[in-house]
Amino acid sequence: MDAHRFQTAAVIAEFNPFHRGHAYLLRRCREMGADCVLAVMSGNYVQRGGPAIFERALRTRAALLCGADLVVELPLPFAMATAERFAHGAVSLLKGLGMDQRDWLVFGSEAGSMEELRRATGHCAAAESSPLFRHFLEEGDSFAAARQQAVETLFPASGELLRRPNNALGVEYLRKLEQLECPMIPYTIPRRGADHHSRTPREGFASASLLRRRLLEGKWEEAAGFFPEKAAEIFQEGLLQTAIPELGERAVLCRLRTLERESLSRLPDCSEGIENRLWKSIRQACTFQELCDMIKTKRYSMARVRRLVYSAFLQLDGELCREAVPYCRLLGFTQRGEVLLVRWKGEAGIPVSHSLKRLEESGELCRRFAQAEAAADDLYSIFQPNPRPCGAAYTTPVVRVTASENEKMEE
C-alpha cells in the first residue's frame, strides 16, 4: 500500500480505561473508509488531574487489539490540562506529524452535527469579544465559566450545546485546527450510550468514570462486560497494578510541603494570585481532599484545582504548555500502522521514536519534555500497589501487535 496515499483517521483520547464506546468510535473510523486509525493518547496522567487507572502500555495494547493501528502519546503538559490546552497539544502534534487534507480528525460528540459545532465555535469567538464576557470575568468566574455564561446569554442554543463535555471539547478541536492552520478534515460521530459522567449504563455502554469507580471498588465483575473482550483480558491481568489515587495521596502532601513558594507561580494555569492560596493551603491541609477544598474558589473548579495540585506534585513547568509538541513518542503499532510510520519518515516535521532517550537527545525543548515525562512516570509508580524502580520511561518497550493477534481478534 502506498503510504503517501494513506487515508488516516486520527482520534484523541485518554482510554481511561478503554471501553466499548471507544471501540465503537474506532470501528466507525474504519467504516468511513480509513486505511489507518491513529490514536493520540494521554500517558500516565489524565485531564481530570491525577494518575490514569491503568498505565499507558496496557491501554495502548487494548486500543491496538480493538481497532487502532498506531498509538502515540499526548505529552504530559497537554494531557493533564484544560480542554483548550488538551486540544492545542493534540492538534499541534498531528500537524507536526504532517497530517493534512488527506486525513480526518474524528471525535465523538453529543450533538453529532458538524454544522451545530461549527456554529457554536463561531459563537464562542463572538462571546469572548463581548462586554458580557468581560463582566463575568470581573465577577470572579473562570475563563471557561465566563465564556459559557456569555454564550448562553447571547446564543442560547449554542450555550446549551456547550454544556455537554464532548461538544465543548469538539469545539476546541475545531478552533485549534483553524488557529494552528492544520488542514485535517474534522468529522464528528454521535456519542452512543451513557453520558460522560453517567452513573448508569445505557444501551450496553458505560461511562469511563463509572468503570473507574467500579474497578477502584474491587467490582471487576460489574465492569468487565462493558469492555471489549480483548481489552477485558488485558485489564483483568493488570488489576494488581491498578493505580489507586489514595495510595499516593500522603506522598503528594509530603512532596508539596517541601516546595518553595516561588516554584508555585511557575505551574501551568497558575494565575490571579492562586499560588498564594495554594501555598497557604499546603501548609494547613492534612488530607488531599482537605487541600483541594481549601484551594477551590468560584474561579477555580475542582477539576482545575486537582490539575494544579498534581502539577505542583510533578513540578510541571508552565512554560512547556505554551509550546508546540516538539516530538512524537510512539507507544505501539500494528502491521498496518507501520505503513503510516513510513509516511512520517518523509513528511513529519518533528522527531518520531518509541525511545524517550532518543527523543530527549533531539534538542533542548525535547529534553525538557522528555525529562518531565520520565520524572512523572517515576512518581506514577507510587500510586500502584507494587511500586517499581525509577527509570521505567526509558526501558518500557514499544507495544507491537502482530498480524496473528489481529486475526484472532477479528475471529
What does this structure look like?
By secondary structure, this protein is α/β, with parallel strands linked by helices. Helix content is 52%, strand content 10%. It has helices at 20-31, 56-65, 76-79, 83-96, 114-128, 131-138, 143-154, 156-161, 165-179, 208-216, 220-224, 229-237, 245-257, 261-264, 274-284, 288-295, 302-314, 337-347, 356-360, 364-380, 392-395, 403-410, and strands spanning 8-13, 36-42, 70-74, 104-109, 185-190, 328-334, 352-353, 399-401. Strands 1, 2, 3, 4, 5, 6, 7 and 8 form an eight-stranded mixed sheet that branches. Helix 2 links the parallel strand 2 and strand 3 (70-74). Helix 5 (114-128) packs across helix 7 and helix 6 packs across helix 7. The longest helix is centred in the last third of the chain and has 17 residues, at 364-380. 47% of the residues are buried. The model has no long low-confidence stretch (mean pLDDT 92).
